Amino acid sequence: MSTSTPKTAGMQLRAGVGEMNREAPLPLRVGLGRWILIVAIGEVVGFAFPVSVGVWMASSPAGTAVIVTAGFVEGAVLGGAQYLAMRRDLPGLRPEVWVPLTGGAAAVAYVCGMLPSSLEPMWTTWPVPLQLAALAVLIVAILGSVGGAQWVELRHHLRGAAWWIVGTAIAWLGGLGIFFAIAPPLWHEGQSVATAIAIGLFAAIGMAIAMAAVTGITFGLLLRRNSVGASGAPAVETT
Questions:
Q1: What is the model's pTM?
Q2: Count of CB atoms within 10 A of residue 235's CB?
């Protein structure tokens, strides 16, 4: 019959814990570089739909509805790319929920983005403080729409998932800032459709890389916070 001293038992316990930690998923196993590549490509491919529709149908009466639909496609493609990057670390993530949530949020963001021009005759008559307040609400809605919608699913898999909303908002703030710094100065009357689309896609590359980098860092930080330790699986939000 074998016996063990408290010291031996302690060594065995530490060895067992070390083995558990080696077998546990490491934070951001996909790697930040691979995350940026997958997500950025997804965003550029997805953005090709609304930028093409926007150039082709800018003056069409049906343009707004078609652009919003194309925005849904953009979001769905982005959501699919993010799922591919996340699934190794979050095997329980449901693509049938994540992808349409992302697409719907992108459509909402497009609606919010087009409201100022669509309702210009109305809101320009408001007092300036009211105009600024309405603009602030729209900006918050645009920046927070994707992250807020994705939180609905992500909260079931990561503790502190609300930080994803913040990180995603910062990501889109930087990404859209890059896009508008590049594309509008290069767009002008008389350009061919192909040139206008090419400019939009060129600007989208910078936008997509910036957005992917920030969301990748955010996801990595969330995984680190939720990393599996000796005490077992991390808690998740279920309410």
A1: 0.81
A2: 10
